[in-house]
Amino acid sequence: xxxxxxxxxxxxxxxxxxxxxxxxxxxxxxxxxxxxxxxxxxxxxxxxxxxxxxxxxxxxxxxxxxxxxxxxxxxxxxxxxxxxxxxxxxxxxxxxxxxxxxxxxxxxxxxxxxxxxxxxxxxxxxxxxxxxxxxxxxxxxxxxxxxxxxxxxxxxxxxxxxxxxxxxxxxxxxxxxxxxxxxxxxxxxxxxxxxxxxxxxxxxxxxxxxxxxxxxxxxxxxxxxxxxxxxxxxxxxxxxxxxxxxxxxxxxxxxxxxxxxxxxxxxxxxxxxxxxxxxxxxxxxxxxxxxxxxxxxxxxxxxxxxxxxxxxxxxxxxxxxxxxxxxxxxxxxxxxxxxxxxxxxxxxxxxxxxxxxxxxxxxxxxxxxxxxxxxxxxxxxxxxxxxxxxxxxxxxxxxxxxxxxxxxxxxxxxxxxxxxxxxxxxxxxxxxxxxxxxxxxxxxxxxxxxxxxxxxxxxxxxxxxxxxxxxxxxxxxxxxxxxxxxxxxxxxxxxxxxxxxxxxxxxxxxxxxxxxxxxxxxxxxxxxxxxxxxxxxxxxxxxxxxxxxxxxxxxxxxxxxxxxxxxxxxxxxxxxxxxxxxxxxxxxxxxxxxxxxxxxxxxxxxxxxxxxxxxxxxxxxxxxxxxxxxxxx
Length: 633
Ligand code: WTA
Fold this sequence. Notes:
Helix 9 (264-278) packs across helix 10 and helix 12 (344-352) packs across helix 13 (378-388). The radius of gyration is 24 Å and the shape is globular. The model has no long low-confidence stretch (mean pLDDT 95). Strand 14 and strand 15 form a beta hairpin. 52% of the residues are buried. The chain has a domain at 506-632: ANL, C-terminal domain (GMP Synthetase, Chain A, domain 3). It is α/β, with parallel strands linked by helices. The longest helix has 17 residues, at 98-114. Bound molecules: 5'-O-[(S)-ethoxy(hydroxy)phosphoryl]adenosine. 5'-O-[(S)-ethoxy(hydroxy)phosphoryl]adenosine (WTA) binds at residues 250, 295-297, 372-375, 397-402, 423, 485-487, 499, 502, 508, 513.
């Protein structure tokens, strides 16, 4: 049976059973029938979760850009691959057909080659959401260079950390970016970052805002100065299935960010297959995901998933509030978008502005709506369903992670029904499992537990760049032999999963993963700060926001001055997205006898839940709890 298109429940049931009982055959068929290979694999999957060793399609040879571009150039050269909607409404939009995309990607790849990068090297991409971002990503993949895209909202320190961690030798950036009414000078940020990197750095600069920037000779070069001299075709590099395709950094509970490494074949097969089915993409559809390519959602579901299916994918440079809060819906109307995929935080922010920004706009092209990045509350779900979907579009609430590469739990339009606030069922080949704190499987339904995955899927990350031990420790040691997601989940009586949120020290703010430890490390460097503890608390729009409890070395210091300093430091060290919403200066933090800060109590206080603090008898300094409650914000 051809399982590529799952379009009814019977097919899902039989394919899901096959994917569990005979995963090798299942994935063998999906991979052989739907992609282009230079050489097939010697085995489908080899894995050992104890050592975190996972191989898919061993020894197969391919190039992912041939699958994303060249094969569609053969069958459908004039189909639009990428639609580009600029930030400014009066600027002309752009579009690129599959054959134009091949030329753009080839040229960019030849530019990269002329700058001396080669297969296996790392290139850092720090660009706004402009077409050159897509071209750069695909150009790297074309020539076997490992891309590391860094979201252009990160600070120079965060950028430097990422450049140094993977030892990248070239950064692609732009003079600046347009974000709503503002422009941001990105090149200055790169210049600052490179002061903290080795001397072997090169910078390729795309012109976008045309504001004046400083160019350092021998190091910096404008794209436009070299691109006209390169060939319009670049031969694809033949890659091994397990060659790294990219590194993408995600925050962890401790220390520096984790460079998640995704490899080529498994990532391609899984993102392509999930895209096709979860969005039920058909030939003339126009698909739009509002994420930034700086996050995993953009990698998998703006670029690789859609393009490998020969889809039309829309890239939007701007923000939902500019020039006003109808922008998203105007874009849907303008391009007749059929699938629309966004984050709950955006839905909440838009819902708050009222339906007047939706009224009078024709949204009848929409067939499927999606959400990603954080749990969606029922109110936001209903608003989305009624005002955008007009009660007529299935909503896919897609649960997944940077580490998983693709969507693992989601409904499927007209196949697996949606259920408000539930991600619902595992995708084909995915074996979720709930466990208790000791790792015992909770087999019953109607139960809450920690969410693990029991079997590898093709796009699981293979390692953390330069630190396999950390990979094993973070994901495969808490519950031996299982991949631990860091999320809690509830399974209802029908086997639908609802994600309840993180169970570690990661907080999801506006859909962005933020580890609290790196933020604490950053602000503890302030000369007047003794200690800090940061926790998440519920926020109407952002889902969660950050609350910092701070103790000072010298309590006579003006606390207003400290508070403004703290957010400045965070902006510099990490980026504005990690700023604290609430800062409480306190004389002490609740600690265990071994000196560990009891964040569990601070989390309760931050969310105003003073009556359920749990057992505080093991605290070294229980008296501090009441003081903190009395002064809480
Ligand atoms: C959370 C984003 C509830 C979850 C693709 C996960 C979600 C983390 C959902 C990964 C969802 C993502 N419902 N929670 N549909 N999707 N999450 O790495 O806590 O940026 O572990 O990947 O976001 O965030 P990341």
